[in-house]
């Protein structure tokens, strides 16, 4: 046991001088080898293995990084999809808020109008305090009279929405445009529209396309104009035809067929006036009215005379409420168109609407509202201004009326390309005005 406990070195130390000598040589050789190694491998013998250890540790770390990255990219994707769905939800809610606001505005307007009428028609009363008085602009509607045209009454019951509808007159001369007209109305989702067909061809065409159509009972006068009449003559017919619609108690949005519908116009009406019309004006001044100063220098001190100017209302697109002044307007225009020669229905329509009473003349007192020129846009506004303006060209009009250009059909199609199909350069080929 003792021998085993003593190690061989111990035994060596206590042994002979020869053995001691061998031990010294061995130590010297060891030191020498150590020095050589230190010279050859200054970084140490285990460098490579220790660096591979570092690599291993790094690679473990990077694996951890990768799995962290993997986890976080999953998280990012999740957040992204969450964000997308929340954005969608926000947009949807915003739309609902907009719709509700619009409904609220409409209801408030109706309430205000009813109040106005109630006060105006009630017993005579004193004026209120400064700034609180308000005249009546929303006249009461007539009591519907079905007896004037029971057949039409039945059609309107089916077609109208909240006692309102779009009405267009058409004969075969405008068939191409009529098709673009109702295709866009359908696309927007408008249900309350009606074509008054002036000949068989158009009546059949509408029926084949599932478009609500109405054919009047034969009427010698009206029918010959309707079948053979040019643009202006047919345009004058509408004042006669519209009367029955108003008598039946319907608000009518009278529409030419050279119009592209991009939104539902019934969401954008004020309904506070007898006539609410789109304008031929091309900017705020010309559309909404301005003080045009006439200069006559020979008058010296009084050289300036102020005049009221406004570009005409477009008689091809207006909303007319079923009121007494509205029906009076239709009668007055129809009478003048049938008794005076060389008059243009649009000019007559405006003269009746705007000229006040004067000696020998009783003016019409219909209330009027000019529609927003960028929502109810004429083709001069579009081609001269809007298409060149980065901000205005982003707005989506409710309708575009190609009233200022004779090449109506190609321009209508270009308007559809631009606003519906998003083709940014669709309007570019056309000049601002027509080149005769
Ligand atoms: C035109 O009128 C609208 C509505 O009143 C207004 O918002 C807009 O700033 C006006 N534009 C110009 C150029 O005066
Ligand atoms: C468009 O609107 C922006 C912001 O209101 C305005 O800074 C810019 O001048 C407008 N551009 C044009 C061409 O009117």
From TrEMBL:
It holds the Pfam family Nucleotid_trans. It is found in: Golgi apparatus membrane. It is a single-pass type II membrane protein. It comes from the Eukaryota. InterPro entries: Nucl-diP-sugar_transferase (IPR005069), Nucleotide-diphossugar_trans (IPR029044), RRA1/2/3 (IPR044290). GO terms for cellular component: Golgi membrane. The keyword Transferase applies. Residues 76-117 form a coiled coil. The chain crosses the membrane at residues 21-41. This is Glycosyltransferase.
